[in-house]
Amino acid sequence: MNKIASSTTPQAAGVAGEAATAHLPQLLTLFSPAFPIGGFAWSHGLETAVAEGLLADADGVADWIAVLLDRGSGWNDCLLLTEAWRAARDDDAARLAAVAELALALAGSAERRAETLALGTAFAEASRPWLDASRQGWEVGGRQDDSAAAPYPVAAGHLAASAGLPLADTLLGYSHGFAASLVSAAVRLVPLAQSDAVRVLRRLEPVLQATGERAARSTLDDLGSAALGSDIAALRHETLRTRLFRS
């Protein structure tokens, strides 16, 4: 029996592979914990959970973050990023402004609102080298503004689409940065050893992959949070007697 020859040569496959990974250096930079957005100053309510004895070890931290990504604020952020990416791709300023307003409305506490705005503002400013100057402006509330006014996931989605970065990989980069930031906070708060932090991130890899893939095929109809413990912790943070973080 004759074998059917592949229509893809090794050379063509190599070129396709290079094209598929050409954006990875950008995403690794944009969502690195070292990217200057000030994420080290925010714990997303994790400080309250540690202070109240809800989190005391690496397994607890991994479970906490997994819930946020699967059905909590991390999941909602990924959907908001997806909507912002699609709006920016389509040059739909009104849709982009609407998702920015929705993101602020979904912030369940004053500190979470301050967090997402502070991170979004810093991200928009630091990521300007990736933006084409002709696409920096967009409408917010009926007036011309720029992405510095956007919550963090909206600023990230806007930048990614404007820079031609693919949605699925952007979601993976964003969610990994979200998880890594919380693990970094846990290292200081629990505290966790560096080896424990690596083990937590390793355990979260399938969750990060699944969250990104699900968010890429979802819409705003899939928004929703069931991580009430995290939401309550975020609300209670402002009353902590001693605080290292701003949220």
Fold and architecture overview:
With 247 residues, the protein is mainly alpha-helical. The protein has eleven helices and two strands, in the order αααααααββαααα. The chain has a two-stranded antiparallel ribbon. Helix 5 (73-89) runs antiparallel to helix 9. Residues 1-18 and 138-147 have low confidence and may be disordered.
The shape is globular
Q: Show unreliable segments.
A: 1-18, 138-147
What is the total tally of β strands? 2
Please report the distance between the alpha carbons of the first and last residues: 67 Å
CA-based gyration radius:
19 Å
Instruction: Give the averaged pLDDT, no decimals.
Output: 88
Beta-strand fraction estimate: under 5%
Question: How do the SSEs run, as a string of H and E?
Answer: HHHHHHHEEHHHH
List keywords for this structure.
2 strands, single chain, 247 residues, two-stranded antiparallel sheet, disordered N terminus, 62% helix, globular, mainly alpha, 11 helices
SSE order and pairing:
Blueprint: H1 10-21, H2 24-30, H3 46-51, H4 58-71, H5 73-89, H6 93-106, H7 110-126, E1 137-140, E2 143-146, H8 152-162, H9 167-189, H10 194-216, H11 228-236
Antiparallel strand pairs: 1-2
Concise summary:
With 247 residues, the chain is mainly alpha-helical.
